[in-house]
Amino acid sequence: MRKNLLFLLLTAFFSVLVLAACGTSDEETSGSGGSEDTEQTADDTEGEATEDKVYQIGATQIVEHPSLDAAYEGFQAAIEEAGLNVEYDFQSAQGDQNNTATIANNFVADGVDLIFANSTPSAQSALQATSDIPILFTSVTDAVEGGLVESLEQPGENITGVLDLHPDAIKNTVDFIDKYFEGSTVGLIYNAGEANSVAQIDAVNAAVEGTSLTTAEATVSNSSEVQQATTSLVGNADVFYIITDNTVVSALETVVNVAEEQSIPLLVGEPDSVKRGGFATYGIDYYTIGYRTGEMAAEILTGEKTTADIPVEIPPSMQLFINKEAAEAQGVEWNSDWDADAELLETEEAE
């Protein structure tokens, strides 16, 4: 009897142990599954957060004119193509370099995710305002001379971008003038306060050495002075050459009017100025360089790269553009070579 009772007690004891073990195993299995579910949910949430993130981009531009506007449009198109959700705060300095500092400081105070600096003065002010927020620039002629980067290959910790001047553009333009307007004095009008412009004027004067050409210069500090500066060169300049100076280009129609009235050929720095009445340029497409800058920005915003990973780029190519209507208005005798060598553009009415 005692043996049977002992046997029953032992059987009951081991049964409890087995049930307890099974219960623990089930709980552990359930707990492990719950952990995996939690991790999966976290991953899903993180993915949704990345897709739903709204990036804040501050866009700063020295002045509004067709070339800079085209670069900004290209930048936005590349961001949209990358599928990023972005809110833009666009600010124009209205041609006043003092305003660029205020704009940049406001962007920093607002904590934007990235600054798009469209011009040399805009980029300089952005770099002075922050060493942390990524800065992507374009419409900059010489990023090294402008103090934006130490070298094109190693731009810096928070800045890079795309230049707006092909290395051969100025030389080709000077050679064009020397070939077709031999012995001319080339009138140059620019804002001496723009580092971008000073670098180009230095390049023009260097390219003129050894040719039949000479130069005459007139400087301005704002767009209201462009007409007087242009008129001051009449009687001395045989050809006008307007580089990509933001101040002068913003008032280009003034120069066009003088060029037509005085029958002075007007060479310019980019195709949009040809469409506005310039005679010819060796230029690049500003929409294209803006688009490439936007591609860089997308890589940085998504964390794929940093500014330090992306060297400063130059425009991939340039083209001779000529406005036949402007040539006639400025008393230029048409050369048959240009039919084969140039892409012909027409004058567009100002909006």
TrEMBL record:
<dbReference type="InterPro" id="IPR007487">
    <property type="entry name" value="ABC_transpt-TYRBP-like"/>
</dbReference>
<feature type="compositionally biased region" description="Acidic residues">
    <location>
        <begin position="36"/>
        <end position="49"/>
    </location>
</feature>
<dbReference type="Pfam" id="PF04392">
    <property type="entry name" value="ABC_sub_bind"/>
</dbReference>
<feature type="signal peptide">
    <location>
        <begin position="1"/>
        <end position="20"/>
    </location>
</feature>
<keyword id="KW-0732">Signal</keyword>
<protein>
    <submittedName>
        <fullName>ABC transporter substrate-binding protein</fullName>
    </submittedName>
</protein>
<feature type="region of interest" description="Disordered">
    <location>
        <begin position="25"/>
        <end position="50"/>
    </location>
</feature>
<dbReference type="InterPro" id="IPR028082">
    <property type="entry name" value="Peripla_BP_I"/>
</dbReference>
